[in-house]
Amino acid sequence: MSKLVQYFFISVLFFLSVLLNIGCSQKLNPTVSDTKTKNPFVWENSTIYFLLTDRFYNADKTNDFKPDVTPAKLRGYEGGDIKGITAKVEEGYFNKLGADVLWMTPLVENISGFVDEGTGISFGFHGYWIKDWTAIDPRLGTKEDVRNMVKAAHDKGLKVIMDVVINHTGPVTEKDPVWPTDWVRTGPICSYKDYKTTIECTLVDNLPDILTNTTKEVDVPKHLQDKWKKEGRWEQEMSSLDTFFKRTGYPRLPHYYIIKWITDMIIEFGIDGFRVDTVKHVEESVWKSLKEEAENAFEVAKKKFPTELPKEESFFMLGELYGYNAANGPLYDFGDTEVDYYAHGFDALINFGFVTDAKLSYSDLFKKYDELHRKNTGGQKFVHYVSSHDDGNPFDKKREKVLESGTKLLLTPGMAQIYYGDEIGRTLTAEAKGDAQLRSSMDWKSFEENDKMISLDHWQKLGQFRKNNPAVGAGSHVNIDKNVFGRIYQKGKIKNTVVFALDQQRGEKSIPVGGLFKDGEELYDYYSKGYTKVVKGMVKINNPFHIVLLGKKNP
To answer: Which of 437, 471, 505 is a domain's end point?
Structure first.
């Protein structure tokens, strides 16, 4: 059966279910909620939506960047901006998807010029070529835009984590000078033979590496001071630095300047966490200092934004330790040195092994990650993904398994990261060179296409199931029957239980609940959006779907 025919068949079933309200002994107006209290936010169960700000949504055309030269395909600015994120937050796009955390690429000011090093003319649209850690990139918006975005997210129950970089500055261009030699090294390129050749080196040619191992105190680079003077904020910035170093007692080393600049964003904007770039290329002691200063700043922010940041919350730090595999435990092996980054400030690390593990059957995949969590007595958290902005070997590069991708990502124990467009099968093979292939713009017009609607509906249902049930990502796994699974989460007074069944026959089906729910209990199917009752340890459902997601309905 061709893909188009499959989409047509599924779409007919989808629209019939909506129009005819086909469900599970469905009640149109339930009078009693199934739970007395709403389940709390749990980081282990969170769904993070990761987006490239420039590629997501253009809500402010006044800041669109028009360069003097034509960039290579998908290597220039496309117009997405901070107001675009805010617009989709206020529209409820992320809430409908079940996301509870937003992560966007760095918003700080990137290089003014461009580079051409084999992939064509490239600008810093992605945010990782930093020019000034104290400013927001004007091609993306303003500080006021950032604050409005964070406020809007918090009002919608979303947390915001910002992408931060300490490892390197932006490339050297005609408009962007190299930083002083007491701030950066310009070689050698990393060879990854051991700990030293992974840290005391540059990632690639012309990407100056911050001297995070230096003991020599430095001044703010002249080119940065000149920029601040031109912008009328030199005295303010220098005074703020004096206050920081006096309070902390830190020596004026390059990485402490940057730690100060990026933790200022916590106080200024009220963000909830950091996603830290290039973790293994910086000494772990630097990350420990970053976390300590971030936590101090977060306490200040909680007093500044008391209605947005709960008193009991802690600052969250997620690390991109490239190549880290959760299956290998908490230690990362450099060959000559093993480092536990969880012990140096990180609450979670991105799990690069999931794109391979996602090829496993549902049963084997869930079993593997449940066992990892059982072995994980230290409470370390993993973040899984099926595609990303720099992984050229995602789970489904041709986007032929968009529904399966969502099912496996959102139902596997652990934290989940949706890369913008995963939910609609945005192309990962764009006509561009290198990692730009993975970074096409979100095509909002394509949402009108039938297959995109079906895919989005699928991801939304899974996302809502996950969001409303901490057992999905943070609970203990139970294998009930073939492709029928349960999860149980209990912490304090909160107990949450779910049962879900995959690859079931369409139409009438009977699902065993494995004793996790009692006879007579009323359950809600998050997939068909209907109610059913447990009878003799089973629930009977009649609908055109092959997935059943059972739990108690939150108020």
So the answer is: 471
Clarify whether residues 19 and 58 are in a common domain.
Answer: no
Cβ neighbour number for residue 195 with a 10 Å cutoff:
17
Its pTM stands at: 0.94
Q: Is 219 within a domain?
A: no
Three-state secondary structure call for residue 499: strand
Cβ–Cβ < 8 Å for 84, 59: yes
With respect to residue 199, please indicate whether it lies within any of the assigned structural domains: no
Please, are residues 48 and 99 in contact by the beta-carbon 8 Å criterion?
yes
Supply the range of the domain harboring residue 354.
42-165+256-471
Domain count of the fold of the chain: 2
Domain boundary among 436, 456, 471: 471
Q: CATH code at 502?
A: 2.60.40
Distance of CA 38 to the CA centre of its chain: 24
Q: How far apart are CA 241 and CA 235, in angstroms?
A: 10
Per-residue pLDDT in tens (0 to 9) along the chain, 555 residues = 444 344 444 444 444 443 333 344 333 233 223 344 578 899 999 999 999 999 999 999 999 999 999 999 999 999 999 999 999 999 999 999 999 999 999 999 999 999 998 889 999 999 999 999 999 999 999 999 999 999 999 999 999 999 999 999 999 999 999 999 999 999 999 999 999 999 999 999 999 999 999 999 999 999 999 999 999 999 999 999 999 999 999 999 999 999 999 999 999 999 999 999 999 999 999 999 999 999 999 999 999 999 999 999 999 999 999 999 999 999 999 999 999 999 999 999 999 999 999 999 999 999 999 999 888 878 899 999 999 999 999 999 999 999 999 999 999 999 999 999 999 999 999 999 999 999 999 999 999 898 899 999 999 999 999 999 999 999 999 999 999 999 999 998 899 999 999 999 999 999 999 999 999 999 999 999 999 999 999 999 999 999 999 999 875
Query: Do 211 and 186 touch, CB atoms closer than 8 A?
Result: no
Q: Do residues 415 and 513 both lie within one domain? A: no
Q: How many other C-beta atoms are found inside a 10 Å radius of the C-beta of residue 330?
A: 17
Identify whether residues 154 and 142 lie together within a single domain. yes
**Residue 168, amino acid:** H
The answer to whether 479 and 363 are in contact (CB under 8 A) is yes
